[in-house]
Design a protein that fits this description.
- The chain starts with a helix and ends with a helix.
- It is globular.
- The protein is mainly alpha-helical.
- Helix content is about 80%, strand content about 0%.
Length: about 270
């Protein structure tokens, strides 16, 4: 059951890293500082759950497969993220920019290390594709959550310009397509080279789960994105926010199904 816990915690790690990345999308001086404070709090909470949980597995489960470098990176990311969030209450812009860059770089390295160690029996190509897919999924998860959060901010500040919402939406769609490209690349690799030794064949033994992962995840999110585009053209921010709720659910369900697929097969989908 240690593998199941690692797969479950990875989703929270993805939300933390992807959320931090997405905070760079809306203009910092174009929104109330409270948006960045509250959003950073949400993403830091996810980071603490995922990072601290991973460190706990490393310290208490000898067969967890979590490496020391991976744990050190997550601990460093949590500290740097917390320090960055603290700067949101001050005006030290240089320090805030440096801490943001350092925390994002460390979080990306930690997430890559987690995706690498989660598939020890995979070849180099599948390892690289797994890291790509994990990072792209993190960006999509962070982007859709940020879109939902910024939509709520229009209830607080109804006179806010619509462009920040458009920027978050465009980033979400781009991240979603990169995620889909990663999934297609992994499936293509499996079809061409076969599954690694000891892994189940996802196209035969787990076809239903694979279809659920795709249909309820990125495909459903793309359908929601098409609707969001139409209502933002009106513009109708409340309706767009409601649709972002559904899109967030689709991306989140897709990620949990993907991690369950990993638990069942040992493959990065």
């Amino acid at each position: 059951m240690t593998l199941f816990a690692r797969c479950f915690l990875l989703v929270f790690c993805q939300l933390g890293v992807g959320g931090l990345l997405s905070l760079a999308v809306p203009p910092f001086h174009g929104l109330e500082r409270g948006f960045f404070k509250s959003s950073a709090g949400v993403f830091l909470s996810a980071t603490l759950i995922g990072g601290a949980g991973t460190a706990y597995l490393w310290g208490t489960r000898a067969a967890s497969g979590v490496g020391l470098v991976e744990v050190v990176l997550w601990l460093a990311f949590m500290v740097l993220f917390a320090l960055y969030m603290a700067t949101l209450w001050g005006e030290r812009m240089g320090l805030r920019a440096r801490l943001y860059a350092a925390s994002l770089l460390t979080g990306t390295a930690a997430l890559s290390a987690s995706s690498w160690s989660l598939f020890p029996d995979s070849g180099v190509v599948l390892h690289v594709l797994a890291a790509w897919s994990t990072l792209a999924s993190a960006a999509a998860l962070g982007a859709v959550t940020t879109g939902m959060l910024i939509g709520h901010w229009y209830l607080i500040d109804p006179g806010m310009e619509i462009e920040p919402f458009h920027r978050c939406f465009r980033f979400f769609v781009g991240a979603l397509w990169v995620e889909i490209a990663g999934l297609v690349a992994i499936l293509g690799s499996l079809l061409l080279t076969g599954t690694p030794s000891g892994a189940s064949d996802p196209l035969q033994a787990h076809l239903e789960l694979l279809l659920l992962r795709l249909v309820l995840g990125p495909i459903a999110a793309l359908a929601m994105a098409a609707l969001i585009r139409r209502v933002l053209a009106i513009p109708q921010t409340m309706a767009a926010t409601g649709l972002f709720y559904i899109a967030t659910l689709a991306v989140l369900v897709g990620e949990f199904l993907g991690r369950y697929f990993t638990f069942r097969t040992g493959l990065p989908l």
